[in-house]
Specification:
The protein has 239 residues and is of the alpha/beta class. Helices cover 35% and strands 12% of the residues. The strands form two sheets. The protein has a six-stranded mixed β-sheet, sandwiched between helices. The protein is globular, with a radius of gyration of 17 Å. Bound molecules: iron/sulfur cluster.
């Protein structure tokens, strides 16, 4: 692994303004609204003293980023509890140390939306912003949430590489480009770990298996595999 140059001028994640009231109040998907609020009310025993977020979870990161991680959805007792994508569950416990190892954050752990985490050169979001039952959003819910994804992507003027974290994230980016009028033939861009495709707008779609507990616990995705993708993204954008 090449040495990573850690920087002391990292941006706090709220440098980007991703939280318009319309997003935090969004109730477009009735099934997901019901689920996110039910989970927040019932809670998991380990988090009974926590006040769950229970709302749409915005993306976060560096608005100057050239790299975007595009995942699936908030975790029920992770981001739906903490209010920040990938934070507070096994997925985040795997992802954030990797982001730190690869020079994107100032620390290996992230706990909640107000923990002061500093992020540089990367932005993190998901295809849908509300937790779905069984972590499976419907196609209609993904489509309904696309305008919020579009807004976040538009807020990244330097974007060059999209890391599709799992097939849902991969497909969400292809569909986003299609919704912009780009000709994207999905069969030419199959999802697969470390697959890399140049998109019609010049961006690169780089895949990784999702950092879900199932994948990391089974060894389908290892630390070395994720680091290699993150470092490949850095190489592609020249940082
Ligand atoms: S998933 Fe997206 S579109 Fe649906 S309610 Fe949540 S924020 Fe709104």
């Amino acid at each position: 692994m090449p040495p990573i140059r850690y920087r002391d001028d990292m941006a706090t994640y709220d440098r980007y303004d991703p939280e318009p009231p319309e997003l935090l109040d969004c109730r477009r998907c009735s099934r997901l609204v019901h689920w996110r609020e039910r989970v927040a009310l019932e809670k998991r025993r380990a988090y009974l003293d926590d006040e769950y977020w229970g709302r749409p979870v915005p993306g976060f990161g560096d608005s100057g980023a050239a790299i975007l991680i595009l995942g699936l959805a908030p975790g029920a007792h992770g981001a739906n509890r903490t209010g920040r994508m990938f934070t507070g569950d096994a997925s985040g416990a795997f992802l954030f140390p990797a982001l730190h190892r690869c020079g994107f954050t100032d620390r290996p752990l992230a706990e909640h939306r107000n923990d002061g985490l500093q992020v540089r050169d990367i932005f993190v979001t998901s295809a849908v912003r509300c937790v779905p039952p069984q972590n499976i959003p419907t196609r209609g819910e993904i489509i309904a949430c696309r305008p919020w994804l579009e807004r976040e992507v538009q807020g990244l003027p330097n974007l060059q590489v999209v890391i599709g974290m799992g097939k849902v994230g991969h497909d969400a980016y292809l569909d986003l480009l299609r919704s912009r009028g780009r000709t994207v033939i999905k069969t030419r861009h199959p999802f697969g770990h470390a697959n890399e495709s140049t998109m019609p707008d010049g961006t690169t779609l780089l895949d990784t298996y999702h950092v879900s507990f199932r994948n990391t616990n089974s060894g389908k995705l290892t630390e070395a595999m994720l680091d290699a993708v993150l470092l490949r993204a850095r190489h592609l954008v020249g940082i």
